[in-house]
């Protein structure tokens, strides 16, 4: 009887660890998609260039010059990055109906998916420690590290 109980506890532990790893990955995708959708599905959205005028604690602001026949915006905000300096000109996409911008192109895509890279690293720890699937854990860790490294280098 004790061996069946032990077997059941092992299955419950593996199911819980798999659930936690899946929850981490879903949270990473969900938090990344909020920004990534504007960069990856940018057709029909306002494209232009943001010239950084000033940076605060978490955002930078500056004038926006559109590529097409849309109105100029005197003050557009973008999430602050360590690579952004005053006077920098960044290709951006505006979020619909706002004056909030996200970086365009490959750097924007990599920056948008950075939360997924962190989630992959955390999930790798759970997969290795809780599920004992070391090859899968190494794959997730390498994918997450590569995504974060590429985002750092691109910005």
Radius of gyration: 21 Å
Q: Kindly name the structural category.
A: alpha+beta
**SSE order:** HEEEEEEHHH
How is the main sheet built? Answer: 5 strands, mixed, barrel
Distance between termini? 59 Å
Instruction: Provide the low-confidence segments as ranges.
Output: none
Secondary structure: helix percent: 55-70%
User: How many helix segments?
Assistant: 4
Globular, elongated, flat, extended or rod-shaped: what is the shape? elongated
Average pLDDT works out at 92
Strand content: 15-25%
Strand element count = 6
Order of strands across the main sheet: 1-3-4-6-5
How is this structure best described in words?
With 155 residues, the protein is an alpha+beta fold. It has four helices and six strands. The chain is elongated, with a radius of gyration of 21 Å. The longest helix has 39 residues.
Record keyword descriptors for this entry:
155 residues, alpha+beta, 5-stranded mixed β-barrel, 4 helices, elongated
Write a brief caption for the model.
The chain has 155 residues and is α+β, with helices and mostly antiparallel strands. It is built from four helices and six strands. A five-stranded mixed beta barrel has the order 1-3-4-6-5.
List the helices and strands and how they pair.
Layout: H1 2-40, E1 47-51, E2 54-55, E3 59-66, E4 73-79, E5 89-94, E6 100-103, H2 105-112, H3 114-131, H4 134-154
Parallel strand pairs: 4-6
Antiparallel strand pairs: 1-3, 1-5, 2-3, 3-4, 5-6
Helix pairs in contact: 1-2, 1-3, 2-4, 3-4
């Amino acid at each position: 009887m004790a061996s069946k109980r032990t077997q059941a506890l092992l299955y419950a532990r593996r199911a819980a660890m798999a659930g936690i790893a899946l929850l981490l990955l879903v949270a990473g995708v969900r938090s990344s998609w909020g920004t990534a959708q504007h960069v990856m599905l940018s057709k029909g959205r306002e494209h232009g260039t943001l010239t950084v005028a000033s940076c605060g604690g978490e955002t930078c602001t500056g004038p926006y010059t559109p590529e097409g026949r849309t109105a100029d915006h005197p003050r557009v905000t973008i999430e602050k990055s360590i690579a952004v300096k005053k006077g920098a000109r960044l290709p951006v996409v505006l979020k619909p109906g706002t004056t909030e911008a996200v970086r365009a192109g490959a750097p924007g895509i990599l920056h948008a998916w950075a939360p997924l890279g962190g989630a992959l690293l955390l999930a790798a720890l759970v997969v290795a420690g809780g599920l004992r699937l070391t090859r899968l854990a190494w794959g997730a860790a390498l994918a997450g590290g590569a995504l974060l490294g590429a985002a750092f280098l691109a910005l």
